[in-house]
């Protein structure tokens, strides 16, 4: 009697690709709610319009590749990409900018390499970087948060997306950009003179980071990913900020708390660095991967040309992930580590 031979790995429990993607979508809700409160409905419009486009591009790519639409569309991976890119983009982005970003993420970064599981680079971050390099003005025009100006309503958000000329919002530099451009004021004086700063980080940004931290903690609780990469990312970022923090001079790069609660720090740590397809897979590899990503974020933020650097850091580490995995694979059960004798060449 011939028995069916099944090789490892063996999946246990109810978790599947659609369930994992749905958990990720649920975990983004606190951050989306905070962004909507402080910046208005622009992020929601980004997500809804981007989600429709992402599903359409996904269906088009599957059709051209001769794949069954129902199976692949139900895995929710296109929606996750749309939500992550929609969060990363400035609120009130025009419809064509969202379209270019979604096309780059779904068609270029995902299906050009064979679809989900074969893409070497994070699709949402590819779409973001394509837009940031190609359209820097639109990608750095963030709406002033609640507390500085009036937060636009839903109709204003729709006008900004589909009829950009009919909407004239009040934009403001991000806190990371303000600190990066400062070369004359002490940090305390800069904090007092600029309304974009909040209690610990940027006004609105600090609460958004706390909300994404809560969503990330939920994903850890649900065991969607392990703690190694996000904790290493945050620890090294905070360590670098502590080592190079000079007490708040005009040349200061910012305190550890400022870096942890400004920009896309928590969003990147728990929703981007943890991508199971494009990150390292071994335990030690995840620690190295997250630590180097955190190091790159600080280096680019403080000494690079971009105030926030999560997308660039993640894409650079996507390059390095196979190399990291090669040198951090655990010892095979039942075998000793190879010993190199002193006389070997």
Automatic annotation (TrEMBL):
This is Ion-translocating oxidoreductase complex subunit D. Keywords: Cell inner membrane, Cell membrane, Electron transport, Flavoprotein, FMN, Membrane, Phosphoprotein, Translocase, Transmembrane, Transmembrane helix, Transport. The chain crosses the membrane at residues 71-89, 125-142, 227-245, 257-274, 286-303, 309-327. Belongs to the NqrB/RnfD family. GO terms for cellular component: plasma membrane. One of its GO terms (biological process) is electron transport chain. It comes from Parahaliea maris. The keyword Lyase does not apply. Its EC number is 7.-.-.-. InterPro entries: NqrB/RnfD (IPR004338), RnfD_bac (IPR011303). The lineage of its organism: Bacteria, Pseudomonadati, Pseudomonadota, Gammaproteobacteria, Cellvibrionales. It comes from the Bacteria. It is a multi-pass membrane protein. Part of a membrane-bound complex that couples electron transfer with translocation of ions across the membrane. HAMAP family: RsxD_RnfD. Its cofactor is FMN. Its main location: membrane. The modification FMN phosphoryl threonine is found at residue 174. It is found in: Cell inner membrane. The complex is composed of six subunits: RnfA, RnfB, RnfC, RnfD, RnfE and RnfG.
């Amino acid at each position: 009697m011939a028995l069916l031979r099944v090789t490892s790995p063996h999946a246990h429990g109810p978790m599947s690709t659609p369930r994992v993607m749905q958990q990720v979508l649920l975990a983004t809700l606190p951050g989306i709610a905070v962004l909507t409160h402080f910046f208005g409905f622009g992020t929601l419009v980004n997500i809804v319009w981007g989600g429709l486009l992402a599903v359409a591009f996904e269906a088009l790519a599957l059709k051209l590749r001769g794949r069954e639409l129902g199976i692949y569309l139900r895995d929710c991976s296109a929606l996750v990409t749309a939500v992550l890119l929609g969060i990363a983009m400035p609120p009130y982005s025009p419809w064509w900018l969202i379209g270019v970003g979604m096309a780059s993420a779904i068609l270029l970064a995902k299906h050009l390499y064979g679809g989900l599981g074969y893409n070497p680079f994070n699709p949402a971050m590819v779409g973001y970087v394509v837009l940031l390099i190609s359209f820097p003005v639109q990608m750095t025009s963030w709406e002033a948060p609640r507390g500085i100006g009036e937060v636009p309503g839903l109709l204003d958000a729709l006008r900004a997306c589909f009829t950009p000329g009919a909407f004239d919002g009040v934009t403001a530099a991000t806190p990371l950009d303000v600190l990066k451009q400062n070369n004359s004021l002490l940090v305390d004086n800069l904090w007092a003179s600029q309304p974009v700063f909040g209690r610990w980080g940027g006004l609105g940004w600090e609460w958004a980071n706390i909300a994404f931290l809560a969503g990330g903690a939920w994903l850890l609780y649900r065991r969607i990913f392990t703690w190694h990469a996000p904790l290493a990312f945050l620890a090294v970022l905070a360590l670098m900020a502590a080592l190079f923090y000079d007490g708040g001079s005009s040349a200061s790069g910012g305190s550890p708390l400022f870096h942890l609660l400004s920009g896309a720090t928590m969003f990147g740590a728990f929703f981007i660095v943890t991508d199971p397809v494009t990150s390292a897979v071994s335990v030690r590899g995840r620690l190295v991967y997250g630590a180097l990503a955190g190091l790159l974020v600080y280096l680019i933020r403080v000494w690079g040309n971009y105030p926030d650097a999560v997308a660039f850091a993640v894409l650079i580490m996507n390059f390095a992930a196979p190399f990291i995995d090669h040198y951090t694979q655990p010892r095979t059960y039942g075998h000793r580590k190879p010993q190199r004798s002193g006389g070997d060449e």
